[in-house]
Structures are given as structure tokens and as C-alpha cells.
Fold this sequence. Notes:
Elements: H1 3-36, H2 42-46, E1 49-50, E2 55-56, H3 59-90, H4 95-108, H5 112-126, H6 133-157, H7 161-169, H8 174-202, H9 206-211, H10 231-240, H11 247-278
Antiparallel strand pairs: 1-2
Amino acid sequence: MSRQQSQKLAVGVITAVAVLVILPILLVIIYMVVNGLSAINWQFLSQPPSNGMTEGGIFPAILGTVFLTLGTAVAAIPLGIGAAIYLAEYAGDTWLTRAIRLAIVNLAGIPSIVYGLFGLGAFVLFLNFGTSILAGSLTLGLMTLPVVISTAEEAILAVPQAFRVVSLSLGATRWQTIRHQVLPHALPGIITGVILGLGRAAGETAPILFTVAAFYLPELPKSIFDQTMALPYHLYVISTQVPGMPLSIQYGTALVLLLIVLSLTLVATVIRSVMRRRRQW
């Protein structure tokens, strides 16, 4: 077999694998759109559930998901980026840093329900936050932290070493070099990792099941110590525990949640593409 034939065969195999990966995702999205689009209107998006959740809308669940996503960002982003800067720029290559990196990788693979049980024990019971937005946000932030640290560290390490050498040779301190040279160039990768981590947090059910989610609340939350409804748990409830629930409402709720997650992914992709075009290297 010639080199050209080998290349064509490799391209064909890779294309076929890509199609096999993408096709099921497209079919799921199309199936949700076909079954759930009829339920989505302004009333569905702006009203609370009514008549035993079989009518009305999902506004409290949408708002609760937004609150939890913002709380996750506050809990995970500063600590995650700070840890990534330390590991990439200050920590040496010692057995301790290697152990920390290994622990971060392992934490990223822990099932979400384990984080939920930890959040229940640590935040709900031990710290006495109760089932609240605060406890749920801290739990989701802890779950998102390994992703943020890993992606931010990789983005920082991808910045050419020459940028650091030139900045330090001109008299800048290490922190000035990191702040004005390294972080601006690493920002596309950092933002992408952060948004993808938040997208995962927005779609999780198990962690909020133990720490914040409520079956139904007649009023919207007024503080971070209140419970809230959330789209993932609301979808679980109306799909398994509400008799006579119209399928269109179930699929409409799933479609809204899917659109939120896909929107976060799209935002990450756009930001990464725009900022990469502006780079000079």
C-alpha cells in the first residue's frame, strides 16, 4: 500500500469514527426538539408550575439553575485559577506537586454522587448551612475545581517560556510577568475550561439532590441560605414522580436544560476562537 493510499485510509477511518461519535448526539438533540419544542413558549419560561406540576412553567427551576451556576463560578474560579498559577509558575517539580497533580486528575473522575454525599456531610450538616444555595454552590464548586485547575494549568504552561524570560530580563517581578504576560495569553484556554466546567455543573443532579434542590417551592429564594428548585432535579421529579405528566413538558424541560448547557459550550468556543485570532504567536 502506497503512502497516499495509507493516508486516504486513515482519513476515512477517522472521518467514520467522528461520524459515529457525532451522529448519536445529533439524533438525541433532534429527538428532544421534535418532542419538546411545542411546550416552549413565554408562559412556560416565565411562570411557576401549577396544577401538580402538570401545567404552568419552569421559571423557578431556571432561576435556581442560574443561581447555582453563578455560585459555582464564585466558589471555583478564584481558587482554581490561583491553584493553577501556583502549580504552573511557583511550585517546583517535586514529589509533592506530582502527588497534587495526580490527586487533581483523580478528583476529576470521581462520580458526582460522591461529591453530593460529601457536600451533605461537610456543608449541610457539619458547617450547618442546611439544604441551601450556599451548600449546593460549594458542592458544585468543589466538583468543578479539578477541571478548572487542570485546564488553567495547561493553558498557562502553553505560553512560550520566552515571554517570561524577556519580561524578567526587563526588570519585571515574577508576579508582574504572570499578570501582564502569562495570564493574558493563557486567558482563552482558562475561559474555555471554566465555562465547560460550569456547563457540567449546570446539568448535574446528584450533588444538588443532597444539598439544595427542592421538589416544589411556592416562593423564589430570597437568600443564599434558602432552598431552590433546579432544572436537573425538576426534570427528574416530573419524569419519575408526577403521575399524568404530559410528555411535552418533560421533553420541553430537558430541551431548555440542553440549550443552557449548549449555550455555555458555544460561548466558550466563540471566546476561544476570537481570542486565539488576536494572539501574536
